[in-house]
UDP-3-O-acylglucosamine N-acyltransferase (Vibrio qingdaonensis), 342 residues
Amino acid sequence: MTEMTLAKLAEITNGQLHGDGDTRIHAVAPMDSAGKGEITFLTNAKYAKHLAESHASAVMVKAAELEHCHTNALVVADPYVAYAKVAQALDSTPKAAEGIAATAVISSEAKLGANVSVGANAVIEAGAELADNVSVGAGCFIGKGAKLGAHTQLWSNVSIYHRVELGEHCLVQANTVIGSDGFGYANEKGEWVKIPQVGTVRIGNRVEIGACTTIDRGALDDTVIEDNVIIDNQLQIAHNVHIGYGTALAGGTIIAGSTSIGKYCQIGGGSVINGHIEIADGVIVTGMGMVMRSITDKGIYSSGIPLQTNKEWRKTAARVHRIDDMNKRLKAAEKQLIDKED
């Protein structure tokens, strides 16, 4: 169990300490259940009245809520960000691997930096390069010529295909596949002719990728994911997609090939994004959004039909099928009105 003084946590969060800096903290906990040795946080001012009821050893709050605190406090600019930083500092999650497992299969032509860890039954092929402090979990596959930057960590059964590149401080959760073939075929009189996918995948620094996500390699050019991108579980990112700095993609999203997503975008879960389009910087697509055309302006975009009873949905669906006929009748009515006015 990791434990730190409140004074040390004040340094980590750039917070202003109110109370005993020698108080020992070992965990972050919700306000209603936090106890001795735990720190909590307040993100919504309407719950400030509950601060007096908390049994936490310390709380993280904005300056406006300090008067409600009856225990040690850290006054911070953003309690949620402070929570994230404290949780990181106290994190006791183990590494994906410790040392080099006896059953790991590592090519003599692979290059491993200092303090690299490789789990049981992992395979690292010729020409692969793992920088210092890389951790490769059990059952992982690292293909020929692949490169992993310093401090990058792969959890179990991750597959990194040939020539794929990951930057520094990346985290990839279990069973994700990076660098599989893009979906490229030509059709000759009903017969599918496979197009070899000769590009690769280039991933920047501080990128986190969830479990069971697939990122395809490029057909000719590369699939590119820039720094500071976060990708949730079970996404499909097709060949030649480009994702800009600081963008967040929630679970179940599907992105078709050759689409470019800008910087600082947020894509809600279950969204579907068409291929060969561009999405501007700062775009937010709410959950289950269907993006069929390029988005050129920053903003929030939504689509889809909210849940209805089956009876209501059947009526809605029936009306949708009559929209074209209704549009023709409306235009005819408009024309009659115009003719009468003339």
Remarks:
- The chain has four helices and 38 strands.
